Amino acid sequence: MSRRVQPGHDNHERWLVSYADFITLMFAFFVVMFASSQADRSKAKRISESVTRALEHGLGAQRKVTVVEIKMGPAIGQGPSLYQAGSAQTAELLPSLEYLNAQLKNEISSGKMHISLEARGLVVSLRQATFFPSGEDTIDPATYSSLQKVATAICQLPNPVRLEGHTDAIPIHTVRFRSNWDLSAARAIAVLDLLTTRFNVPVERLAVAGYAETIPIAANDTDEGRARNRRVDIVILNRQQLVNEPAPAAAAAGNPTPPPKPQPSSLRPQNSHATM
């Protein structure tokens, strides 16, 4: 005679386990999203550690948790980091950056020049007070040795170079220069002439731009700010920037020649004159 199996009691609260796991994952998701949007690195790290401890020990979770490290960018207002501005695009310019920082150490420390690696490329900024007389476009011969070091770095690379002239916001109007536009362009051309005639930089690799006072890097309401704005920037463009640059004459004529591949650089550390 067979025995009748007594039906067991159904556990109607099993859904709470799945619900608790779902809530845990949603909590982890939103905390990670919050942490990735914060500029404070130390705060983000503390949040990440707290979430890890909660997932591993809290709420009775019995699952293994994989923690992903998020590399955060710089705080707002600090500008692009080297990681952001130059991973693949500007890695080719790092040897030149190291070389120029070493060779121009005295000029940089005295404020005569400034060097930075930006998203567009390597920028060597020449301060007007050092390289040009007030209101003029003639380069001081005493600065030739410094410019020769920059020319050496340029010649070691195939990258195109743009020479950008800038002034402060005080207007100039002389017999030679009718406006700040004329002065900024003339100073950039003066640098071009020196690089090509004295230091043998190929002229086809150079371009000139005059921005007058339209791209300041400091406020124009102080003497110090205006002095910083009076400059010529030598910009060694990275390979990515070539996409936005005009094609060389050969390519425009229907006979394109591919740009040379980047080679490993051998450079290593070793009257109405306004104050323009």
CATH topology of the largest domain: 60s Ribosomal Protein L30, Chain: A
Which strand order do you get reading across the main beta sheet?
1-2-5-3-4
Topology pattern, helix = H, strand = E:
HHHHHEEHHEHEHEH
Count of beta strands: 5
Please bin the fraction of helical residues.
Answer: 25-40%
Number of domains: 2
Radius of gyration from the alpha-carbon trace, in angstroms: 30 Å
Looking at this structure, what is the CATH superfamily of the largest domain? Answer: OmpA-like domain
Q: Could you name the CATH class of the largest domain?
A: Alpha Beta
**How large is the count of helical segments?**
10
Mean of residue pLDDT values = 76
Features:
alpha+beta; 60s Ribosomal Protein L30, Chain: A; 2 domains; five-stranded mixed sheet; 38% helix; elongated
Report a brief summary of the structure.
With 276 residues, the protein is an alpha+beta fold.
Account of the protein in words:
The chain is α+β, with helices and mostly antiparallel strands and 276 residues long. The protein folds into 2 domains: 15-57; 82-252, OmpA-like domain (60s Ribosomal Protein L30, Chain: A, 2-Layer Sandwich), CATH 3.30.1330. The chain is built from 10 helices and 5 strands; from the N terminus they run αααααββααβαβαβα. The chain has a 5-stranded mixed beta sheet. Strand 1 and strand 2 form a beta hairpin. Helix 1 packs antiparallel against helix 2 and helix 4 (94-103) runs antiparallel to helix 7. The longest helix is centred in the N-terminal third of the chain and has 22 residues, at 15-36. The chain is elongated. The chain starts with 14 loop residues before the first helix and ends in a 24-residue tail after the last helix. Residues 58-86, 251-266 and 268-275 have low confidence and may be disordered.
